[in-house]
Amino acid sequence: MYDIIGDIHGCYDEFITLTKKLGYDWNQKGYPIHPDGRILVFVGDLTDRGPESIKVMEIVYKLVIEEKVAHYTPGNHCDKLYRYFLGRKVQIKHGLETTVAEYDALSSKDKAKVQSHFMKLFERAPLYLQLDKGKLVVAHAGIRHDYIGKTSNKVKTFVLYGDITGETNPDGTPVRRDWAKQYSGDAWVIYGHTPVEKPRKINKTWNIDTGCVFGGMLTALRYPEMEPVSVPSSMPKVSEKFRAFDE
């Protein structure tokens, strides 16, 4: 039994509210534990844009690496932060600047700890998760059915960024094809990456990025019940960040 959480993007308070709504207890150990043994699954993009990225990173590290009571797979923002920590040349914009500002405010001791924790979390994470004997796939931006089980560079690009065409929209965002419309696999694919006003189910796919950091909601999908559970965001609404699909 899993509770799959959409893109958090530093919205730590909403994460606490959502896990409590799902029945998780924070009081016993200081991190969310479910009395029925349900397991949290993170779809990536823990950081950037929101107010408390480091708190989100640290709690997910605690759950996944130290306590081994949750699953995590990275998103494109996680990938970029990892490259930043490696010392690669990345552009500190599109949200990374908020995480870097939080990081720069830390003591050198805390910087070393946060960097070490996040790098370990990222390095140990699979490109996408295959759970429940392969019946459930959790991939940040989704995955084509014929890519499941593969990890080539082409698959990595798809999982992190979606079905991009290489072109850009007038606002600078990449043009993405609606891959979920063509999905015909047997496994359920749960993903985020593209903010939508409400959880979107099409074929055997669910998009649960409901744009918490843009003033929408933070959403979880309960599996195997396939029941979405959302809490409202405390952030201001940025309507143009949400994508509408022709169904």
From TrEMBL:
Name under which the protein is recorded: Bis(5'-nucleosyl)-tetraphosphatase PrpE
Record key words, sorted: Hydrolase
InterPro entries in alphabetical order: Ap4A_hydrolase, Calcineurin-like_PHP, Metallo-depent_PP-like, MPP_PrpE-like, Ser/Thr-sp_prot-phosphatase
Enzyme class: hydrolase
One Pfam family linked to the record: Metallophos
EC number(s) reported in the record: 3.6.1.17
GO cellular component: cytoplasm
Domain Calcineurin-like phosphoesterase: start-end pairs: 4-196
GO MF terms held by the record: bis(5'-nucleosyl)-tetraphosphatase (asymmetrical) activity; phosphatase activity
Species this protein is from: Schinkia azotoformans LMG 9581
Family matches, as SUPFAM superfamilies: Metallo-dependent phosphatases
